[in-house]
Amino acid sequence: xxxxxxxxxxxxxxxxxxxxxxxxxxxxxxxxxxxxxxxxxxxxxxxxxxxxxxxxxxxxxxxxxxxxxxxxxxxxxxxxxxxxxxxxxxxxxxxxxxxxxxxxxxxxxxxxxxxxxxxxxxxxxxxxxxxxxxxxxxxxxxxxxxxxxxxxxxxxxxxxxxxxxxxxxxxxxxxxxxxxxxxxxxxxxxxxxxxxxxxxxxxxxxxxxxxxxxxxxxxxxxxxxxxxxxxxxxxxxxxxxxxxxxxxxxxxxxxxxxxxxxxxxxxxxxxxxxxxxxxxxxxxxxxxxxxxxxxxxxxxxxxxxxxxxxxxxxxxxxxxxxxxxxxxxxxxxxxxxxxxxxxxxxxxxxxxxxxxxxxx
Length: 360
Ligand SMILES: *Cc1c(COP(=O)(O)O)cnc(C)c1O
Prior knowledge:
Elements: E1 6-10, H1 11-24, E2 29-33, H2 35-39, H3 43-50, E3 56-59, H4 62-70, E4 77-79, H5 89-95, E5 98-101, H6 104-112, E6 119-125, H7 136-147, E7 152-159, H8 171-183, E8 190-193, H9 195-200, E9 208-209, E10 235-247, E11 252-253, E12 259-260, E13 265-270, E14 287-290, E15 293-296, E16 306-309, E17 321-325, H10 331-337, H11 342-347, E18 355-358
Parallel strand pairs: 1-18, 2-3, 2-9, 3-4, 4-5, 5-6, 6-7, 7-8, 8-9
Antiparallel strand pairs: 1-10, 10-13, 10-17, 11-12, 13-16, 14-15, 14-17
Bound molecules: pyridoxal-5'-phosphate.
The site of pyridoxal-5'-phosphate has 12 residues, from helix 9.
């Protein structure tokens, strides 16, 4: 028997979520964001599951794009960080990858390149996130350089939101205004929306959306937002009980004795720990499901093990399934309890956790 942990990846859920993103922004094409190994779900498998219908894919950097090309993906592939050196320009050409140009050096490398075929490019503006992109006042000059460049075949204008997951905050409106003003005279498609903007900011949809986390079934707006009901979790992280014991009132559990039984308590151990990607900071009370019953983490998370409260669950036994997150336990709830976000839970899944694909 292998160690019972696995991450079941529901490819039909990814397809459902992609279609939902398209339905919400019916006038736009959608790049499925599969950077960081498709947020831990396996970039090749996810891209193949979407290959028939996705308008394109987005990854962070060239090697991630090459992996998709080598696995037979033909759709456009955008590199969200662009390239890191002029030498990398040749990869774009060879693998037909589309760079984001977000800085003056990147723009100069592109202008100086001599690709065999003209390139598609996305030009990024810093409309207020203040992380990457050309300042609004420098954008027209960068645009003109690309528009005049004989080896640039097409151009998309893009920006990224800092606070789209806060539907009541006006910062997203402000970013939209800055972007609209600085691009008013330019004739090119536009792209602004991450998942949160696809879900909450219809006016930002533009010509291309860039949904990421929503493809994997976690709403960036939280489980209380109506959008959460329409998304299907794409990952079930599950393991099994490997130990069960009954403790008396006053007995401590695990490292540091963080949890102390307030009453006679049945404690189970599941084969999953922080070295698998389960958050070490999960406090007592973090939700978990055992054999279909909701319960909680008790005691500090160890490298390979977690301890759970089994008190009151009937007929519980070694071997029973434990769901860390998935259809019963919301990844957002585990993340919130642990002071992080579902993005980090998914991307932290370690190589030692087998990904098991299911479709339909
Ligand atoms: C990662 C990323 C996205 C996707 O964001 P989600 O919040 O996961 O939908 C979109 N655009 C850019 C530039 C990104 O880096």
